[in-house]
């Protein structure tokens, strides 16, 4: 992995272009864009310079613990439930459309955390110590990330 950012006792290895490319493979085409209007297809067609800029943005977010304000907002759309009357309010369910770049960033964090948890769990098992529940850590982290939007 890349360079290391140090903040007191914490260390963060900067995301690499390989991690970004791997995360891009998992974006689902045809998904609606968030408030920034950037679709999955546009992101997947980014060239080398644009991908480098996105990587720099993600690393900046990770090292400063700050994300763009637009990523904290969502476009809420009402979808009609199948077979329901269009004139009744309860016939609709709200969905929140998040920015695709935020979803990509979140995926890279989750992959990194999952890999670290697996490595920690393996290390603990080899040392004979009780392994900390990685799934609990991941769920808690995800809840904190969602709350901060």
UniProtKB/TrEMBL annotation:
InterPro entries on file: DNA/RNA_pol_sf, RdDP_mobile_element
PANTHER family registered for this protein in UniProt: ENDO/EXONUCLEASE/PHOSPHATASE DOMAIN-CONTAINING PROTEIN, ENDONUCLEASE_EXONUCLEASE_PHOSPHATASE DOMAIN-CONTAINING PROTEIN
Superkingdom classification of source: Eukaryota
Protein name: Reverse transcriptase
GO biological-process terms attached to the record: DNA biosynthetic process
Organism: Petrolisthes cinctipes
């Amino acid at each position: 992995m890349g360079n290391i950012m140090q903040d007191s006792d914490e260390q963060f290895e900067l995301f690499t272009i390989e991690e970004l490319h791997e995360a891009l493979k998992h974006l689902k085409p045809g998904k609606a864009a968030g408030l920034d209007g950037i679709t999955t297809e546009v992101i997947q067609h980014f060239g080398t310079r644009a991908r480098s800029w996105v990587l720099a943005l993600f690393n900046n977010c990770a090292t400063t613990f700050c994300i763009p304000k637009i990523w904290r907002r969502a476009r809420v759309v009402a979808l009609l439930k199948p077979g329901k009357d269009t004139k009744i309010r309860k016939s609709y369910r709200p969905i929140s459309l998040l920015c695709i770049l935020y979803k990509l960033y979140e995926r890279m964090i989750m992959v990194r955390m999952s890999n670290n948890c697996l490595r920690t769990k393996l290390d603990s098992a080899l040392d004979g110590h009780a392994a900390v529940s990685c799934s609990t850590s991941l769920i808690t982290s995800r809840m904190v990330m969602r709350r901060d939007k």
